[in-house]
């Protein structure tokens, strides 16, 4: 990599009259933005930009996991199948740890069970109904039914009891009377990602998992990929329970072994000598 400090917008019809200095890509991270010329092996899609000035204007760290799909035979042993996959640490999905017997991780089957543990946050794998609490400007509260879709993470706040009074008219023809019925219902008060209060009745059924918190040892926990990167010892076997699986031209069972972490420096750049500029990324693998 050769670099030079120059005007990033030179005339397109004039050659750059500069002296290039040889240096490594990682040596200029703290000097960006900078005009550079790459001299080395480039991926096929970037060879077009070799030996010509480009503008590198920022960089960032990118972490990803190297994983293999697991197939388990009904007789007991398991095999790594298919090609090696790379999953970024910001992958929008949730994982459970695979037990030694390769069974499924247990989960809470009702909100009442969640309330007995009171985790910091929990993840729902099924759609569930609750009540949304809205506070108006005149300090009045209104309650609206709210559908909570599968894949939602809720912060647990407290338990709550409410008494609901309903009225029904009974009688035949004109002999009608009003009858009032009072019911007490217990709720788990939760907060969604928009800081909205939601009340979910204890009687709600479904599949619920506590969300992993640093230091937690609960086997029911679910993990984001970044949690696995940060807190677990690799290799580790996991199963995806929610999220879009990677698109691969081979078998994918949903169960995988995470082999190792890969950290890369990603440099974002742009062409400067073309009439139409193109953005690109250069990857520099660290581990």
From TrEMBL:
Entry keyword NADP: no
CABIT domain ranges (all copies): 81-269
Keywords, in A-Z order: Phosphoprotein
InterPro entries referenced in this protein's UniProt entry, alphabetically: CABIT_dom (IPR025946), GAREM (IPR052281)
UniProt-listed Pfam families: CABIT (PF12736)
Name of the protein in its database record: CABIT domain-containing protein
Organism: Mytilus edulis
Source species taxonomy: Eukaryota, Metazoa, Spiralia, Lophotrochozoa, Mollusca
